[in-house]
Amino acid sequence: MRSAPMMCFAVLAPLFTNNFIADAFAPSSTRILPRIPNNKNVFYFPPKRSSLCDHSKKRTSALSMSFSPIASVPRSVIARGFAIGTSLALLIGYHVRLRLWEKKENNMSWRSHQADVREQWSHYVRSNEAWLYAIQTLRNAITANTFLATTVLSLLTVIAGRGFSTIQNSGSSPLFTVQFVAVTLSMLSSAYQFLQSARLMTHAGFMFPVSPESNKVDNIMRRSQNCQWAGLRLLYISISFISWTIGGELAFLLSSMGMVQFFSSIDQAPEGTN
């Protein structure tokens, strides 16, 4: 009679062989039974066969290769895409954070401070009927906005001509087209914001003597300041897009990091303001 350890070994031994799982799930007609030699002095080693675990590993690796297209993408493409995404996230995330910071507890930034000053200036002009002083100040501001819009459009004309000649003569990649569109849209939007600021200031000059008791002109002056700030901000951002077009993704990332640092320094409210 066999002892208990021998019986346990007899039951558990097949679980550690390579053939147990495969033979257990294989059809009876295709199951291969090894020949055991009759000579007792010869040690028998069963032939190695691929187990079910090996087949499952092969299937898992094949499925992982088929369902992971990122593994087939070159590392340089991944690095370039990461640099582009990081640069855009820096530029967009900074302005979203700035806007949320301004709304939280009425914090003061350069943009909100200048908008308040324009509104207070309009209220002062209406209260003291300083029409001549208002017209002189508005004329200088309109001239500055017009000059900025003209400068941006002149630069855009040069860049657009160079870009179109490159596309028509030697062709371009889809990435260059994206870069060219980004530069064009940012500079066009900048010029548009400058022109809107000048338009609002011109309208405010006509409204001062007509409706001195209304505060609509105060809101118009605030909107004109916001447009001027947006025009300057888009002009700065277009520099990052130009560096992307000229120097590549690494230059775009470095310029975006520098722009964020530059924005954080100029967006601070003047000293002595709450």
Q: What is the terminal separation in angstroms?
A: 96 Å
Given the structure, what is the number of helices?
A: 9
Order of helices and strands: HHHHHHHHH
3D shape? elongated
Measured on Cα atoms, how large is the radius of gyration?
37 Å
Total number of beta strands: 0
Please indicate the percent range of residues in DSSP E strands (runs of 2 or more): under 5%
What does this structure look like?
The protein has 274 residues and is mainly α. The protein has helices spanning 4-12, 19-25, 52-67, 75-103, 110-128, 131-169, 174-210, 216-247, 249-266. The chain is elongated and about 70 Å long.
Give a summary of the structure in a few sentences:
This protein is mostly helical. It is 75% helix and 0% strand.
What are the defining features of this structure?
single chain, 274 residues, mainly alpha, 9 helices, 0% strand, elongated
Layout of helices and strands, plus pairs?
Layout: H1 4-12, H2 19-25, H3 52-67, H4 75-103, H5 110-128, H6 131-169, H7 174-210, H8 216-247, H9 249-266
Helix pairs in contact: 4-9, 5-8, 6-7, 7-8, 8-9
